[in-house]
């Protein structure tokens, strides 16, 4: 089964928001009553129910499970984490993504106990000269200390986020990237990777800034992304603006412990964390009074009843009535390369299928338009009006489409909360990927 963004590329996913018990306002889904047991929808629903049911209900179980999963005792204050998670109705045991992201570092520590600290020291020394779009966050006596000087869009909100749990953290310093894109282009699954990780290839890390990025990625192991997991290999790199011409670069090819918002595996080895945009308090997050607040029957749909009935069986039909508005973000424009960027291709698709999809690019990203970019031509070619609309207007529609911009799409969780049915195309992994289930939250398809 293809998982979003892990191995398969451009998995188109249909997400059905699930917030506790099924609500009468929820989108129609296949009923599990009377459905055959080999129905993947039923199997997915049961697997989600089982996931919640099997969470540890006391701290002893939780600690035992942690040790069993990782082969080491839980970190200090695990009892406090346990209570924190219970209070917030979070999962207790299922955090495989973060275990996976840290695993190479634990393995390296067995070879060289000072590895982690030495890498940190190299990066910190560099950042005294040039922050490279990263911050070194210090936790001391339960308090959060940011470096001096505003360095990125998140510099002033990260302390608010971290201070909600910093009291439970030991003293530490960590590196966190302010770029939407991943930074650590190191495939730890490649042959000889451990040896390579222990040596340093670059004199100055985080300075690999190829322009454009397509050939550079093609030559790196783990960075040729298969279009489909089945059948013969064909690379899907040309379908992603990030791979064609990444909006931000400053990659390193050595292994450094960096917290990032998204990555593509196995090309990158960043440690994932949730982006600020997803928090309700963010200016950027779409505001929903409460999950599924607009009744399904009151949402707009251009779909006729007969095609709606086909949603679960015929993927092609579900493009009917999809609506999308967004900015031209994607990658650095270089000649005509933008025509291959996801969002521009979506406009092309909509032009050919105006009866199916309503798509418009509403604003132009000047910062992605350098010397080899002709803004006027692009604005004309794609009819970019400059007139956006409130993010929340999207929630009035039954069917929504979400595609990558410069990296992941930050509107995604808002779309899920809205109770609309979301179709998602992405190459990126985010911190929540393990929790999304095919046929419960999405229907996986390669595009
Ligand atoms: C778009 O990508 C294809 C390969 O998938 C390439 O042949 C073509 O030249 C690209 N177009 C532009 C305008 O870069
Ligand atoms: C261009 O956009 C405007 C407003 O956004 C719209 O009214 C017009 O129909 C569009 N033209 C084309 C050719 O798509």
What does this structure look like?
This is CAP10 domain-containing protein. By secondary structure, the protein is α/β, with parallel strands linked by helices. It has 13 helices and eleven strands. The chain has helices spanning 40-53, 59-70, 78-87, 96-111, 115-129, 158-162, 193-198, 214-218, 241-245, 305-308, 342-352, 375-381, 412-417, and strands at 11-15, 134-140, 143-145, 172-177, 258-260, 271-272, 322-327, 357-363, 399-403, 421-426, 445-446. The strands form three sheets. It has a five-stranded mixed beta sheet with strand order 3-2-4-5-6. The protein starts with 10 loop residues before the first strand and ends with a strand. Residues 238, 336-337, 339-340 line the site of one 2-acetamido-2-deoxy-beta-D-glucopyranose (NAG). Residues 383, 385 line the site of one 2-acetamido-2-deoxy-beta-D-glucopyranose.
Q: Can you tag this structure with a few keywords?
A:
447 residues; alpha/beta; 5-stranded mixed sheet; 4-stranded mixed sheet; disordered N terminus; binds 2-acetamido-2-deoxy-beta-D-glucopyranose
Average pLDDT: 83
Which overall shape is indicated by the principal axes computed on the Cα atoms?
Answer: globular
Termini Cα gap: 15 Å
SSE order in H/E notation? Answer: EHHHHHEEHEHHHEEHEHEHEHEE
Ligands bound to this protein structure: 2-acetamido-2-deoxy-beta-D-glucopyranose
Helix content: 25-40%
Put simply, the count of helices is: 13
What low-confidence regions span 5 or more consecutive residues with pLDDT below 50? 1-32, 303-321
Note the beta-strand portion. Answer: 5-15%
Write out the strand line-up for the largest beta sheet, numbering strands in chain order.
3-2-4-5-6
Give me the Rg, rounded: 22 Å
The major beta sheet can be summarized as: 5 strands, mixed
- The secondary structure category is alpha/beta
How many β-strands, per DSSP?
Answer: 11
Family: Belongs to the glycosyltransferase 90 family.
GO molecular function: transferase activity
Protein name: CAP10 domain-containing protein
Signal peptide: 1-17
